[in-house]
Amino acid sequence: MRVYSFIITIFLLLQSSALISQDLKDENTLRDIVFMRTEGLVMTQLMEKHTKDKQMLLLCKRIKNYYQKTQPILLEIVKGKTLQLDQNQFDQIWKAGEKSFENYNDKNEKQWNLLFEEHINACVQAYTKLLQERQDDDISYFSFQALPELVNLAAVCKQMQTQ
Measured on CA atoms in the order 123, 126, 131, 135, is the torsion positive or negative? Predict the structure, then answer.
């Protein structure tokens, strides 16, 4: 009888440990999504502020619309989660973005457009990976909702680069 109690206790401990580990993994994934989206929004706002290219301005508007459309889904998913985010981290992302855009000018605009495209492609890859891993229903749902427009935005960026 004692052996069975011991085995059941160990089994329950391993199960709860696995659940805690999965929760931490999910929270890390959500934190990464929040940071990735923050970087994208900062890049979008700075690009919009600096560029004179009408196509890029339209793309920036479309990207901002994408963020507004998908934000409520993400906010619902992170509700009640401990993501360990603070304003200082967001301020650092903003300052790093502003600093990098100090060198922005008409001559190197294509390089910035390419960097912008690379960020969007990285988001597409990350969300695709999340869908493939199927780690959490809410995260998968968010990725499924966010991915199609990201793919479209990546295609627009690529098309702009070839023109």
Answer: negative
pTM of this structure: 0.77
Catalogue all structural domains in the chain, each as residue range(s) with its CATH number.
Answer: 25-162 (1.20.1260.10)
Q: Decide if 116 contacts 157 (C-beta within 8 A).
A: yes
Residue pair 142/33 in contact (Cβ under 8 Å)? The answer is: yes
Question: Is the separation of the CB atoms in 41 and 154 below 8 Å?
Answer: no
Q: Express each pLDDT in 2-16 by its tens digit.
A: 444 544 544 444 444
* Stretch among 27-31, 61-65, 91-95, 124-128 having the lowest mean pLDDT: 27-31
The answer to whether 42 touches 94, Cβ cutoff 8 Å, is: yes
Length of the chain: 163
Using CB atoms within 10 A of its CB, is residue 64 exposed (0-12), middle (13-18) or buried (19+)?
middle
Gyration radius of the chain over CA positions: 20
Mean pLDDT of 81-88: 77
